[in-house]
Amino acid sequence: MNRRLLPATLLAATLLMAQGPAQGGEGHDHGDAPAASNSNGPQRLPDGSVFLPKPAQRQIGVRTLVSTEQQLPRSLELNGLVVMDPNAGGKVQAMAAGRLEPGPRGLPSLGQTVRKGELLAYVTPSASSLERANQIAQLAELHAARQLAEKRLARLRELADTVPRKDIEALESEVASLGERAQAVGGGLSGREALLAPASGVIASAHAVAGQVVDARELLFEVVDPQQLRVEALAYDAAVAGDVHSAYIPVGGGAKVALTFVGAARSLRDQALPLSFKAHGEGLTQLAVGQPVKVVVQSRSKVSGVAVPATALMKNPANQSIVWVKTAAERFEPRVVMVEPLDGASIAITSGLKSSERVVAIGAALLNQIR
């Protein structure tokens, strides 16, 4: 290297070292600076717990309850179907094929109130022209035979002194028999079947129109007492039938329809055991025959645990069931728990939670989303 250039090079290097690291201009930050943190806002801490200030707790509506271990009934949710009470309802069917005619009040409509034995409609039997001709011919023969028998009876009565009494009585019986036979055949030609209400209640279903041609055993009306309904539930475990303590149907608005256990079948249906319940209470107005329902059955056997609302149960990233426990004024910790269902609104925590701990009952879903 040229000795004349060496002092100049050393001078330039010394000036660069004195200036320090180069700084980018405005808008040219490379992102090396750490992000600013807000320690006063809701945040997920490194140990998995959540820091939630009091204002934020009030904003999202966090509410807690004190856990208390107790003996709770086991619950089971079954699929059920609302059916009519066989003693408080029935079906109206035609005994023979014919044409439908309205009754004195016309054909009943859906929801109409009827009384037991009330006339609903008529069915005029249908017959072919050949059958009707045979019936007319038979009726004519019976009338002719009766007229001859009556004339013979009149002559025998005139000779009552010389004719045995038994012959007169036999002929009287024959005349009466011919008259009844003629009346029966005539009634078959002009008579009609009366369809009567089998029970008091309301018309639940109607499949009838004036002039309609119906077949024998065809369903025309269903009468149901809305205050006496039954529910059939299917249990896939036969042991449930012997462990039923109480049952109910959850309906809208938090209301419940109480059920009384009637009994269990002794034969399977679709690989399940049917259980029969009698429904009663104000919620019956929200049920209809044929409606599928969820039946919550509470058993006699008990389970030891803590009852909490079902909304308190959450899932962690590992898909484990957890609840949030308030350990400090602004600190919440997740607890992995084991649960069993109690009813449609509550669950029983059987392990993972200690007594007297404060469990988040309301607002757990929003708390679980804090990151």
Automatic annotation (TrEMBL):
Residues 20-52 are annotated as: Disordered. GO terms for biological process: copper ion export; plasma membrane copper ion transport. Residues 1-24 form the signal peptide. The keyword Methyltransferase does not apply. Keywords: Signal, Transport. It comes from the Bacteria. GO terms for cellular component: cell envelope. PANTHER family: CATION EFFLUX SYSTEM PROTEIN CUSB, SLR6042 PROTEIN. This is Multidrug efflux pump subunit AcrA (Membrane-fusion protein). The lineage of its organism: Bacteria, Pseudomonadati, Pseudomonadota, Betaproteobacteria, Burkholderiales.
